[in-house]
Amino acid sequence: MKRLYIILLFIFVIANTVFSDNSSNDRWKTYLSYYNTRIVEKAADKVFVVAEGDLPYNIKKDEVKPQGSLYSYTKEDNSIKEYNKLTSLNDSQISFIKYNTNTKSLLIIYNNWNIDIIDNNIVTNLPYLYNNTNITDKDVNSVLLYNEYAYISTNFGIMVVNMKKKEITDTYNLSVITTSCIINNNRIYASTSDGILEASLNDNLLDKNNWKEYFINTSLFNNKDINTLLFFQGKICFFVKNNGIYYENNNTITPIITNTTISSVKLITNKLACICSNQFYIFSDLDKYDQVNNISINDISSADKMDSYWIANGTSGLKYITKNTSGTYSVNSDPIIINSPKYNNSYRVLCNNSKVYVIPGGKSSNNNPLGYQGEIMVYDYDKWSIISPKTGMRNFTSIAIDPKNDENIFVTAYNNGAALFAGSDFYKYDTSNSTIESAISVPSSKAYMNIDGATFDKYGNVWMNNSEANTPIKVMDTDGKWHSIACPPLYNQYTLNNILITSTDKKWFNIPRVNPKIVVLDNNGTIDDSDDTYMEYTNFIDQDGNNFSPNSYNCMAEDKNNQVWIGTSKGAIYITNPDKAAASVVRCIRIKLTNENDEPYYFLDNIKVNCITVDGGNQKWIGTDGNGVYVLSADNQEIVHYFNTSNSLLISDVIYSIDINDETGEVFMGTDKGLVSYKGEATKGKENYSDVYAYPNPVRPDFNDKVTITGLMDNSNIKITDINGNILYQTKSIGGQATWNCKNKSGSRVSTGIYLILISTNEGSESVVTKIAVIK
Questions:
Q1: DSSP designation for 700
Q2: Cα 95 to the chain's mean position, in Å?
Q3: Omega within 30 of 0 (cis) for the link into 698
Q4: How many whole angstroms separate alpha carbon 67 and alpha carbon 90?
Q5: What is the tens place of the pLDDT at every residue in 3-15?
Q6: So what's the architecture of 694-774 in CATH?
Q7: What is the DSSP code (8-state) at residue 314?
């Protein structure tokens, strides 16, 4: 019997100790985009910035409200702090921030109308508007700060937040779209889609009858078109988009500036900023201003000196500008740019060796016909970089990496064919240089080449789907030669999706919608279709004899027992012996669990499954379309984890893609709002015990998570004992890892001391002993 003994010394201070945080939240990481700075707000000692990912190809920044992430920059020490769910925020995708100098706190409004207030690093959540089901149109249009109050103008009226008491004070339901409001001489004025309304703050503003029309006699603009009201230099001012800014004096309307390119206005200290498409103005009086040309900004805020400002300069980051003695403005420091993903849309995620690859994109829609730029975001666990095609492509649908050469990255695109990144070389494929076909419905056009499902087989050939084609399966072999395979069940199918190549070299295809089905191809080891056989499944019979006919088949995966899993619109099923499935009747298994009343139910019944990934311990990570992520145990008998936005640090319940770093167990989840990861319990099993270790070691008193034992062989037996040999805990590894919560059999945390971890294979052919120190 081969034995290997490893002793880890009990060292209280270890220079390279990692994973020392003190809660399970520390298993989570977010990888949000800070590519495009959109909002900037000066605080007492720092500046707050909202930045977001790059927008879809045909969407302009002024056509959508910000949906970004928050960070702060402190000029004194050049420090940057990111704020997200990991740092106690209650949501993601921020539309507005406002810093209240009166209360010294920051108001945050999210796209889903949730509200946070940060006060001295303490976050208070105000979910009133988010949870209110009686209000249907909740969109927020602007925020006015007045003393300790924030007046939030919405599509239904005005909501008042007391930022000092951190509570909702009032809600004025005006039943009209309200774009902004101001307060002057104890009166409140609101710009609405019906014109301007006014009322006394002494009246009952909950009563709509107390709001009266504020009439403006002018032909310069329509009262209903006013976007923003401001009170500047003792005058009520009106901003009309695509027109200009005006003020009222003795019932006369006078222009401050007429400029059709002004996109927004903002009061900064005692000045008025007007932001245009490629310049901005800073008014110190109604008729006196500085003009800054040849610079495009999204937002501006005061800085720490007179005539100095912070600007959100879009993709150029955060900049600090000052006015020179000559009267011109210049950038006074290097731009503040955070290395991050370029996009938050994480349509496909792929872990390969020591890198994570993410593509935005997907199949475009009527609302977004041009979609995302065709680019690959690459994370090397230190920084993010971008791989871009040398010729324009959009809407990447899949990504695959050659298992024999990880410099060969193959991508497919919606409407745009396919491409190969081979180191520094780039090759684009379409109807002119490959067997790729245009859609049958538009045979004369090259513009509709819907390619998806790129997958490398064990020989190095890359397979893909070609929707609406005569020969719907395309293969590029290792010599770069293209092949077509007919496969009649896939002929002219509207939206072909993925390809799963199983351990027995069968090719599984799923059609998610319009005649949804599963097709299995056996090409008998050849790329031509002369000896191919195929099977076609439009429905299944479950273990209870019930017909299972979902509206869509969305994804597929093969587990460690060579069973094929299929994600559908009605949950997940698996095929126990996929190579022997009969063409006429196909049996499937639907997972059955029991609830708290010991009643059986179908797991994920009628829940749409978008993706399934199997980890090193044969646990199934199942991503849904609105219900978060479920982790099913290796034996399919229990839910190991359930993550959603309410019970975890997941930033969205819409999961596009999941992939796993088998060496570390880190699970990457691509969502519509960004990329997150969770440090899972399972890794790929090792061939021997030469690299066994436990972390953190030592375990300090404030550590409340589980100790991880890694570097194990598959299904290792784990026993944890005290120094006298008393067994405190025993388990089996999940793939190449196991965990321990530092508790004994009675559930109490163990005392300070050194504990032995005894590890062996089932057969006892190899074993190892390691130690861990616990400080209570």
A1: P
A2: 16
A3: yes
A4: 15
A5: 333 222 222 222 2
A6: Sandwich (2.60)
A7: B
